[in-house]
Amino acid sequence: MNFTDNDIAQIQNHDLTLEQVYEQIEIIKRGMAFTHLIEAASIGNGILRLDTNEQDHYIKVFEDKRNSLSLIKFVPASGAATRMFKFLFKFLNDYDITKDTINGYINKNKGSGLAVFFAGLEKLPFFEEVVHKIHENVPNFNTLSHDEKRVEFIKTMINQDRLNFSVLPKGLLPFHRYKYHIATAFEEHLYEASLYASSNNIANVHFTISPNHSKEFNKEFKYIEEDVEEHTRTSFNISFSNQKKSTDTIALTLDNKLYRDSSGELLFRAAGHGSLLENLNALDYDLIFIKNIDNVIVSKHHKELAKYKKILAGVLIEAQKEVFQFLHQLDKESVNEEICSLISEFLINRFNHIISNEFQSYSLEKKAEYLRNKLNRPIRVGGIVKNEKEPGGGPFWVKDKKGNVSLQVVEFAQMDFSNEAQKNIVRNATHFNPTDFVCGIKNYKGELFDLKEFIDTNANFITQKSIFDQDIKALERPGLWNGSMAHWNSIFIEVPLMTFNPVKTVNDLLKAPHQFL
After folding, report:
1. How far does Cα 116 stand from its chain's mean position?
2. Does 442 map to a domain?
3. Is the pLDDT of residue 391 over 60?
4. Cα gap 111→89, rounded to integer Å
5. Is residue 135 part of a domain?
6. Domain total in the chain
7. With 280 labelled, which of 105, 109, 271, 371 sits at a CA distance of 20 to 30 A?
8. What percent of the chain has pLDDT over 90?
């Protein structure tokens, strides 16, 4: 493929090189490689279930250390709320009030989501705001029919000339209604952070956001800062970053040609949440809590939620202490078989490593090198939830192209559902990944790892998208918690479902974990 001078300028504007773009094109052409699943992880086979005494122990480990550690909460928050209202946009587009009733439309179109939405209208956190706005825009609202009122309610929520909620970032959308105020997801993350991501009464919270929303996020923080700090007795250091342009990827047509828009410009797209590894890599903290912007809960459950975050952090602190001790031993002492045996058992029992069949035949020097390589990696401890038909990938034992078996988080998009044996493995999985991690990104010398060194570069996603009615191929980088962390040392702990309360559609706001009153 040949690039024009204008193309090259476009590529450079994205902080990319020609070589990088050619590499992206080759990856897209090769197509996506599905992950080879061996079996689903389960309790005692890759997932730990802690009893009450163990939970209390790990909470104490964390509490004893928290004020001597630098902590931060990392929240991917660039997503807009558009998808939350997708079924409502479809309704407005399809429904003709002159030809049918809303109940008739629901019955004909099997619109169970729409029925739930209308049944729960008054429980929505922004119900009163929408009603107030309706009366501003529709002076004769009270004289309208029941169906006309419901249509106006939806229009007021999502139309561009009214509240236009669908273009807001999820973090700034009203999520929870309390007795005296409405809280956004952004605000809830601050309250949570004060309970488990703070040390010495200071909480650092980092949000990855779209550049277009910086002003709105800063405005929201200034609006709520005083109240949140007073209620939590915590000072907040809030920081923001944007997905780097250099992580964008080029788009191709379905026949593997460069996609160009009507003016002849190339198309570069944001390459999925795996691109946020660059943002994570720029942080310098001892412990990093990762949690998605839409996974929050009303305040009456915050302390119970924080308990499990502290448990995950305690597990990481203890595991990290053991790793560092072993690495210092390898530095200071002459290597012997006993040390190598202890370390290999630790790797198997703690991080579910599969030790090479050739390990026993290695020289002591080579054993030490092998073990050092396995030990000296970033560590993550993930909360894993019992599978109760919630969406999301999960922990699986997988085999790579070289025949190496490891325990990984695998997304649905990486699974080959056309293969019956692979489908059965997924169908029988007992747990899934709610994206709830605590990470240690420093080595035993206190130095930051370069997280880009631990990516599975074969775990890219190739997706098909539609741009102005034309289908294209899009490349997404290895996901932040699967391919991008594939070569981290990982521990998976079962946590209760109450820790996972994502808001994927507006109807999720009607569920109990999002209802305070």
Report:
1. 27
2. no
3. no
4. 13
5. yes
6. 1
7. 371
8. 94
SS3 at position 358: coil
Q: How far apart are CA 102 and CA 118, in angstroms?
A: 10
pLDDT tens profile 26-85: 999 999 889 999 999 999 999 999 999 999 999 999 999 999 999 999 999 998 899 999
DSSP 367-379: HHHHHHHHHSS-E
End-to-end Cα, the chain, rounded Å: 60
How many contiguous H segments (helices) and E segments (strands) does the chain have? 15, 21
Looking at the domain assignment, is residue 160 inside a domain?
Answer: yes
pTM reported for the whole predicted model: 0.96
Interhelix angle 127-137/146-158, nearest 10 degrees: 100
3-state DSSP assignment of residue 388: coil
Give the amino acid at 33.
Answer: A
Catalogue the E-assigned strands of 277-393.
287-291, 379-386
Q: Beta-carbon neighbour count of residue 415 at 10 Å?
A: 19
List the structure tokens of 215: 């002003």
Domain that holds residue 151: 82-167
Look up residue 450 and give its two tokens. Answer: 């370069």
Give the residue ranges of DSSP H helices in 174-301: 185-196, 214-232, 277-281
Q: Which residues contact 162 (CB under 8 A, 6 or more apart)?
A: 133, 137, 155, 156
User: Per the domain annotation, does 334 fall within a domain?
Assistant: no
